[in-house]
Design goal:
about 5% helix; mainly beta; 7-stranded antiparallel sheet; Jelly Rolls; 3 helices; 6-stranded antiparallel sheet; single chain
Length: about 250
């Protein structure tokens, strides 16, 4: 399952608050499944962006159907990158992953396939004043156009690799299985609990304005089974004790 934004980001959006936890300075990766019914220039998919404010970032669509991103590093010099040439089609699911290093060098993958990169010598910056949104743009970024769905949105405080991008795109792993110690937030948007429940374990649940529940990407359209990391690493429980009659001495009369 997934959430659609039928009215576009201006009226349908998901907000996660302004916490600086969403702007780690050591490394940063964003990813999600995305299905567009139309492409809007600078239509923000995932962003904590407010123009030239230090610590801003966003990844978004171009009207041509490509994916691009903004980042405002510690220097305050706004960086806009439209790195790839892959043109997305409307009404089709894609997995998008963008990974940044601490120096603001980026790699982009669509369905696990490289779609451009950016080499930089800047520095990621923290910010605790700008709200993180799915679907809504702020200063310098437009609201996302009407979409057919967003699902499995996640943020990590590390730089993911193409191997991990392929694992996510082909359904081999879900975000909670990719470097769980670095997972900042994971929002399946599947409607099985709170509509924007955070399965990272940190309780960073989103607030929905509008949106609809729709069928999700084919590889994750069934109800997921989520097992907390603490449980996955615990030893197996001991076997149950034998029945009481086996433990009791037999009495013959």
């Amino acid at each position: 399952m997934a959430r659609s934004l039928p009215g576009g980001g201006g009226t349908d959006r998901i907000s996660f608050g302004p916490s600086s936890v969403f702007t780690p300075t050591n490394a940063l990766s964003w990813g999600c499944w995305f299905n567009a019914s139309a492409f809007v220039d600078y239509g923000t998919i995932f962003g904590k962006y407010d123009g030239s404010t230090v610590g801003s970032y966003a990844f978004f669509t171009r009207s041509s159907g490509t994916i691009a991103y903004y980042i405002t590093p510690q220097s305050g010099s706004q960086v806009f990158v439209d790195p790839g040439s892959a043109t997305l089609s409307t009404n089709k699911w894609y997995h998008i992953l963008i990974a940044a290093k601490s120096n603001c060098s980026f790699d982009t993958w669509i369905n696990g396939i490289p779609d451009g990169s950016k080499t930089a010598t800047l520095a990621l910056a923290s910010n605790n004043t700008i709200t993180l949104y799915l679907g809504r743009g702020l200063t310098g970024g437009a609201d996302l156009g009407a979409t057919n769905g967003i699902a499995d949105a996640a943020i990590w405080s590390t730089t993911l690799t193409q191997t991990e991008a392929l694992a996510l795109a082909y359904g081999i792993k879900r975000p909670y299985q990719i470097r769980p110690a670095s997972l900042i937030g994971f929002w399946p948007l599947d409607g099985y609990q709170h509509p924007a429940f955070d399965y990272s374990g940190f309780g960073r649940h989103g607030i929905l304005t509008g949106t609809n529940l729709v069928a999700g990407p084919p590889l994750i359209s069934t109800a997921p089974i989520f097992v907390p990391q603490a449980i996955r690493t615990m030893p197996a429980p001991p076997p149950p004790p034998p029945p009481l009659e086996i433990l009791m001495p037999q009495i013959w009369v």
